[in-house]
Amino acid sequence: MAQSKRVTEHTYAAPVADDASWLPDLTPVDPGAHLVDGGVRDLDAVYYDTDDLRLTRTRATLRRSTGDTDAGWHLELPLPGDSHEDVEVPLSDEVPDELRDLTLSRTRGDPLRPVARIRTTRSVRHLLSGAGAVVAELNLDTVRAQSLLEQGGNTLWTELDVELAEDGDRVLRDAVEKALRDKGAGRTGTRCEVARALTATGSPADLSPDPRPDPAPGSTGEHVLAYVRGLVTALTDLDPAVRRGRPDAVHRMRVACRRLRGCLRTWRCVLDRSVTDPVRADLRWLGGELGAERDHEVLAERLTAAVGELPGELVLGPVDARLRAWDVARRAQTRRRTLEALASPRYRALLDSLHGLAAEPPLRAKAAAGKPRKVMAKALRKEEGRLHRRMERALSLSPGAERDAAIHHARKAAKRVRYAAEAARPALGKAAGRLRRRAKAVQKAGGDHHDAVVARDALRRLAVAAHAAGEPGFTWGVLHGQERAAAGVREQELSGMWGRPSQPGPRREHGG
Q: At what angle do helices 273-309 and 319-342 cross, to 10 degrees?
């Protein structure tokens, strides 16, 4: 069974090799703080990657470690800032299937093989606070690295690795770093030992990002590609969290799919749709598979909260028990659906397509090279016009199922406007920002309305099941009435929220 922890560490070039006498006095870091000798350890790690080093390129590492208290398989996944997540499973001869799955969004199914061996003699010192708690570990390492790639060589270096306790704070980190800098210990610029090893041994592998034929700086193509590539990276990074059921991971990955779909639709003038339309179809499929789990999560939380807020005299029959049973059954079904999607050939093919889209973008030369104030503003006006038409139609209908569907349709258009404005914001400035905020408000109100409509349907089905079991249906009816009222409030909000299109476009320049 995998265990994981968040690790925050910095690596410094030791000013004196094989000698810890230079380490600074860290008493000012914390009153009573002092270093305690933790002994010497010998570590031996073999790093695994694909032939073209897809893990290393995306700042992830997979190693089989022996000779220390953390012996086992370790997958390090990047987190924002200076941290990474260390996922550990027990030692075995082969790469564990669980870790192989967690690397899939990066390897895209290519085989993993040993690429480097790193042996470290580690002199450990623990930084204790005045209260005696370990607040950081300072490791003076003598590192011997061997490339296992063809024509790879050997190298040797000394470094100081500083790892904060899992709950370590930024103030402590900064104080330790200042003390080290004062002693001449500068950051190495990388925390990835395997990347340093492969570079230092003169291995023929290219660790730079994949060749990317970028359009001209400041062009429409540059802005659109920056947005697309950021979303591809986000989807890649979220995959392991979704597989492990981390909070909010499914929602964030689904949003990344939606943003990518919307971007590829809006910017069809920049990216060749003969290439991007199949990708959009696969993103829509993936978003739908993820949506089953996310939608149930939202619905279950909404209904549970609603029941909890009812006065006791309005809760008749085993309402809580029926709601829990429904939730457990549906949650298991939707979770299985998510994992099956991520294990499917279609998902793996989508990963390949997204990688190809980012690495070799199918740019349409004229629009991609054009000025964003013209090209992007025109596309935004088109999306905003579509939203305006859908809103007018929805609000012209009488309350009922047709109007509910039309509002949901308008909400989808609002999301596309919002995402398009996000991509255009760096180029169009405040005009795109205002449009984004306006579209987000419509999206939120429309989303609340849709949640109420979906909740009504679920409550009707729960009431039918309760009636069939001989249970009172009164409480389900009360909740159904509340959701109908909530939907009506949102409809009134929407009717006053959207006027004429604001016509975003190039900002006027003074003097003409």
A: 160
Cα gap 56→323, rounded to integer Å: 46
Residues 6+ apart with CB under 8 A from 220: 270, 367, 368, 369, 370, 371, 372, 375, 376, 427
Q: Under a CB-based contact definition with an 8 Å cutoff, are residues 385 and 509 in contact?
A: no
Structural tokens at position 422: 């996000």
Give the contacts of 301 (CB within 8 A, at least 6 positions apart).
none
Answer for the pair 116, 194: CB distance below 8 angstroms, yes or no.
yes
Please state the length of the chain.
Answer: 512
Strand partners, 143: 120, 157
| Prediction pTM value | 0.86
Query: Residue 18's pLDDT is what?
Result: 62
The values of phi and psi at residue 232, to 5°, are -65, -40
| Cα(89)–Cα(73) distance, integer angstroms | 5
Residue type, 349: A
Q: pLDDT-derived band of residue 189, with 50, 70 and 90 as boundaries?
A: low
Query: Backbone phi, then psi, for 462, in 5-degree steps?
Result: -65, -35
Question: How far apart are the C-alpha atoms of 337 and 285, rounded to whole Å?
Answer: 12
Average pLDDT over residues 415-440: 92
Is the predicted pLDDT of residue 451 greater than 90, yes or no?
yes
Q: Is 460 exposed, middle or buried (0-12, 13-18, 19+ CB in 10 A)?
A: middle
Residue ranges of domains in the chain, CATH in brackets? 3-200 (2.40.320.10), 220-495 (1.40.20.10)
Amino acid occupying residue 374: K
